[in-house]
Design a protein that fits this description.
30% of the residues lie in helices and 18% in strands. The chain is an alpha/beta fold. The protein has a six-stranded mixed β-sheet. The longest helix is centred in the first third of the chain and has 25 residues, at 2-26. The chain starts with a helix and ends with a strand. The protein binds zinc ion. Zinc ion binds at residues 207, 211, 218.
Length: 255
């Protein structure tokens, strides 16, 4: 019994110690102030590319035709930042956004256009340090890279080679990252995707967009769904409840 109590005390204090170290360490750095501007489609034309990381960037628009008469809402534009040596091809990314648009059309939501920014990867590697919700200034980290971008309103999607340790896709919605540079960003890692056939069951770009638009995590039941927590239950379906929520997102506009 005494042994048991001792073990409990030791393991509890160990857990406390780990928590006490991990949290302040991650959150030491102050959050930078991000400049918020009213959503203005035309602000892209005034984009200033003259900073260090993105000097080689080229920009083009991919407009997605809407032949669906049932559409009631739209997302004006999503910015896609594609790193040149990441293994991603622009045509594949366009195709994934077309599929993501079809999936969102279940909810009567259309994606009007994708602002494609093709640029050198930071450190020329395309390998990104994943995954800190607290601000972290590492030069290959998500916060630093996002901070180097000129101001882009709306959702930003980063197409990278891989995370040092991390998943094939991730999303920083307002619940996770409000008022940080990475809010409303999604990250897609080509290398992890290629090595995992489980991702063939659903469209990962739509799944990560789902996290942003729903501002929530995964669904935890046995119903097949785009946002399922169970890999075997992932497909491209969204239910009525999710559709209602998506249409109410501040990133989605009424036609
Ligand atoms: Zn997810």
């Amino acid at each position: 019994m005494l042994k048991k109590i001792c073990f409990l005390i030791i393991s509890t204090s160990l857990m406390l110690a780990i928590n006490a170290v991990a949290k302040p360490d991650e959150c030491t750095f102050p959050k930078p102030n991000i400049k918020r501007q009213p959503y203005d489609l035309f602000s892209f034309n005034q984009t200033d590319w003259s900073n260090k990381l993105f000097t080689q960037a080229t920009q083009s628009y991919f407009y997605i035709n809407n032949n669906n008469k049932n559409i009631s809402h739209f997302i004006p534009v999503i910015s896609a930042v594609i790193f040149k040596n990441s293994g991603w091809e622009i045509d594949e990314i366009k195709n994934r956004f077309l599929i993501a648009t079809q999936i969102l059309q279940q909810c009567k939501v259309h994606i009007n256009s994708v602002n494609i920014i093709h640029t050198e990867a930071p450190n020329k590697t395309g390998i990104i340090r994943h995954h800190r919700t607290c601000y972290n200034p590492e030069p290959n980290g998500e916060h630093f890279i996002t901070n180097q971008l000129p101001y882009l309103p709306g959702i930003r999607a980063f197409f990278i080679n891989k995370f040092i340790i991390g998943p094939a896709g991730t999303a920083f919605n307002l619940k996770r990252a409000a008022n940080t540079p990475i809010e409303n960003t999604i990250w897609l890692a080509k290398n992890h995707l290629n090595n995992n056939p489980a991702h063939a069951l659903y469209e990962i770009v739509a799944h990560e967009l789902g996290h942003i638009l729903l501002n929530e995590g995964h669904t935890n039941n046995d119903q097949p769904n785009l946002m399922s927590a169970k890999p075997s239950k992932l497909n491209n379906e969204l239910n009525d409840l999710q559709c209602n929520k998506i249409r109410q997102s501040p990133l989605v506009y009424k036609l």
